[in-house]
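Regression test attached.
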Amino acid sequence: MSRSRSSTTTQSRSLKVTGEEIWKNKTEKINTELFALTYGALVAQLFEDYDNDYSLINERLFSMGYNIGVRLIEDFLARTALPRCEDMVRTSEVISKCAFKIFLNITPHVTNWSNNKDSFSLIIEDNPLSEFVELPMNAKKQIWYSNVLCGVLKGALEMVQLDCDVWFVADILKGDPQTELKIKLNKILKDEIPIGDD
Amino acid sequence: MPHQKIIQTSSIDAQSSTRSTSNTGTHYDDLLYQRSLIYKKNEISLSAMTFLFQEMINYLHQSSSTMSEFELKLSRYGQSIGLRLLELLNFRASLPASLTSIPTRSSILFSSSAPLTDQANSNSTNTPDAIRKREEESSTNADLAKHITKMRRRDLKILDILQFIHGTLWSYLFHHVSDDLVKSSERNNEYMIVDNEPQLTQFIPQSSKFLNSCHFFVCGMIQGFLLNGGFPCSVSPHLMPVDGFDERVIYLIKFDEQVLERESLRF
Amino acid sequence: MAIESLLIINKSGGLLYQRNFIDKPPQSQAPNQPEPQQQLNSNDYLILASTLHGVFAIASQLTPKALQLSQNDIDYTIPYIPNVGMPTNGGRTGNGSTVGGGSGSSGPGSNKLGSFKGDDFFKDSFVSWNKSGLRQLCTDQFTMFIYQTMTGLKFVAISTTVMPQQKVATPSGTDKLDRYGNSSNLAIQIADNFLRKVYCLYSDYVMKDPFYSMEMPIKSDLFDKKVRAMIKNMNE
């Protein structure tokens, strides 16, 4: 037992190093504020197009994220060439220390594990999407402004054969003390794992 | 409509006065105004940006029935960003160098992790450290307004504001000044900004008949910036490849007649 | 190693991309080489792709695990081999420096690697995702290399110049002879390095193209151009 635990910690440390190294040396970068403003313009457009129907907007943001996720995973894998994760604990580390680090230069804190280790939370500080954002009072209760992130994670994980539910449970933009995103593994899509990758 | 509030000069006074920070939401909102003032030079990956840009184009493309509708919508996105950036960049340009050139100081004082953790562990918010940090923060924010002795003057001349776009805006957006700024020799209301390697569209196939249309995003930003600065104009993209730069694009700016008339009135 | 043909096959065996890269001038063909047979048409390639997909699946039934031979501690690591498919003299300088004054982008123009920073897409060794599947297929006429991603994409390179029995010099020193083993191993490693880079190009010029629909044939001229440049560098 102790051996496996210590090997996990060395692994996660090296994931941290891997993420930071790739972010620093192998990734072209652009101004976060341009990103935030662009996303803001998009959300504003959705408010208009969907006539302030917040649940529809949340849905649309999610599906946009999904479209991004199924493509973004290829960028992530080509860039990192990380091997398949053996469990969700490892997956959570890769998401936090590598994926979030490399794409958004943040490292969300992994916490709130379920007992059977199939679901966890990401506490997102410094969410680059929320830069400059203040939600209108009437939208505050219902809108998940950064819902695109859930879609991205859903799409990306599905492409590596992990069927997960991804949703926000709290957002600092809504007055919550922190921004918390939940990932729950439904099942591993075993039939879809590429032959030869085992 | 959610709007991205970029600090405007007039709102500073209202901001700097002390407001209750007991409510977490209010506290965050307060921070929002304060933090936006200082450019933290944060970066994300070009990949994340281009994936977002791609999905945005995809969405607009699906919801537009004609090419010109698509271009107009994309341009409006850009405009909404450009007109905010005029305020933001003018404001930041007014901050004294001492405040903007010491990244360590600002990043310590304005890093959001500080207030966020304060809120997260509400039990520990009253540790001396947290209190000191918060006081430090609010005092500096109040100071910030005082530090601005003089707002940067708005650009009033065509050339001045174009230089601002070529230099400040472009560096802010793309890490380098634009590759050229040219005045048309044929029509005196036309100017061109040149980008040899447009970043956002670099992965769109050159054979795509939509490539040129995708440049309307940046066109919109330029246009919004100029509109808000009092220079009504239209901006259109033109692909002008040269040797070594296959994706080179020229943003053609056509100022409205009134702009030229005003320009000639000045002494 | 010269790459003559490249295929990309999706996770269900559909052909996404196929190009031949044989330089046309027929007079430069070695006399002992027979005229290439009639070109395959696009339908032939579709069949080829799905056949390969099937063969790949069948072949994995022959792996030691399936045969219940225990073989522990297999090292799936592919060493990084510098400059595979990269311009030889540390990067061309863009010819665009003649563009008028006020030039801001100081860096060299055309040798940027899209969203990948630096002078190569990656610099570290990496672990193959294709552990028990087919990696190399040799005949007397050609060698085929297969790189499979975690998402199930297959990148396939076909070369007629690398024969398994052909000796290839190890890149540095003799102490690595064990590591690289025979030339066939080295060829696989070069191919894996190359194909991962094609994957990198794919992630930029196909995945980030707003007008590309997933699982559809790749038509991007930019992707084509970048792949061609890389293969040209390989073949030099």
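Expected vs. actual: identical. Chain B touches chain C through 38 residues (CB under 8 Å).
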